[in-house]
Amino acid sequence: MPPGLSEDEIVEKRDLFVNCALKIMESEGSDALTLRKLATTAGVSRTTPYLYFKDKAALLDAMRIHGFNALSDACEQAIIGVEKHVKQMRVLGETYVTFAITRPALYRLLFMSGVDGDMSEPLRAATDRYNKITSAPMQKAYDAGIMALPPERLGPVLWAAIHGLLELRSAGLLGDDQAFEEVQRNLNSVLAKGFVKKAD
Amino acid sequence: MPPGLSEDEIVEKRDLFVNCALKIMESEGSDALTLRKLATTAGVSRTTPYLYFKDKAALLDAMRIHGFNALSDACEQAIIGVEKHVKQMRVLGETYVTFAITRPALYRLLFMSGVDGDMSEPLRAATDRYNKITSAPMQKAYDAGIMALPPERLGPVLWAAIHGLLELRSAGLLGDDQAFEEVQRNLNSVLAKGFVKKAD
DNA sequence: CGTATGTTATTGACAGCGTCAATTGACGTT
DNA sequence: AACGTCAATTGACGCTGTCAATAACATACG
């Protein structure tokens, strides 16, 4: 399936298509992302993307991988210089929210579009990386006796709450941005009350 | 836009198409729901659905309305005979979860597919109805001094948490059903700890 | 230096989709 | 029995994803 180019050239071209596809999706909406438009926008002929992606699903898969890695990068960047574990958790949460709000189309692709079958192995690896990054502070806080639950239990709950909150926001069910932030504060306080055993 | 049939006949036919479309979507997946397949499955010719729905978006809109009303009906049914407000809240939450798990395609259509523009007026009415049903127990519990927050603040947080939890489950990120139920319990306890001021 | 080979990129083609315009056909009214 | 009305069908168009056949082009070899 991968063409006979050198490994580097092939990933380079794939990245080119992925970036172009993301640009289309984020500027014109998910429905506007068509393989033909991708091809012509990339200055290439209609079926050329098929040399680098088996089908449209494979393209979306590559876009998801790119997105998760971008989010992981942003997380790693964000916690540089932040020492307290609980503060790191808050920063990671803020990074997640910022990512969701500033890149809504990509966020929807990552977290709100049903993955039909099982995830591909590279996509699984990308999500695993993100999981590891976000789990580390929770693990350390748990080890330090600050958190009441270990990451494998705390993580899903936090993720669920934040993600659900964002979805309600994007559905316009929370009113304006001020109302959103208030709900966010409520959620924050309730989660803190439920999980933090002692101040950090 | 509505054809010149009697009002009753028209809604009857629309319901027929909506039910047929739901059957297709829930048995063959969302992607398999095409207007042409809907027509032939309904034993009618290709473009007949266009006499009753302006376009595919209008059909999906009608399906959403149907779905919200089905969920509202289930909620009303579920709290019959349940007196304590907090217990009602729990029952409504369970109804929501059951609905999401037993009718995943419809659930995704209702809560996980981006509504492009603003909602249509009838759809808004259907969601309002559901909102009212779920808000009532929270309001009464709040009035009775049991809840720490009024419905307009508590509701979104609970909804966010439950919805996010379900989405993570459907993404396969929570492992098997036993793990899901454990996370659900964690979420329950944390929310209770955060919101319930006194035992009911 | 010219030719042969392999592989990238393009064009052609097909089925299926959403959608609209023109046509058919049944049925109540006069 | 002729007419008018309107639900329903068929035909057609542009678009999509996708595959097969073709062209262009670089590289290796005589």
Query: Mean pLDDT of chain A, rounded to whole units?
Result: 88
Order of helices and strands of chain A: HHHHHHHH
Largest interface: A-B, 38 and 37 residues
Helix content of chain A: over 70%
Content-based structural category of chain A:
mainly alpha
Q: Count the E strands of chain A.
A: 0
Radius of gyration of chain A: 19 Å
- Unreliable stretches of chain A (pLDDT < 50, length at least 5) are none
Termini of chain A, distance in Å? 52 Å
Gross geometry of chain A: globular
| Oligomer type | homodimer
**Number of discrete helical segments of chain A:** 8
Proportion of beta-strand residues of chain A:
under 5%
- Largest sheet, strands/sense/barrel of chain A: none
In short:
Chain A has 200 residues and is mainly alpha-helical.
Describe the protein's topology.
Two copies of one chain form a homodimer.
Chain A: H1 7-28, H2 35-41, H3 56-78, H4 85-102, H5 104-111, H6 121-143, H7 151-170, H8 177-195
Helix pairs in contact in A: 1-3, 3-4, 3-5, 3-6, 4-5, 4-6, 6-7, 7-8
The first copy, chain A, binds a DNA duplex (30 and 30 nucleotides) through residues 3-5, 34-36, 44-48, 50-51, 55-56.
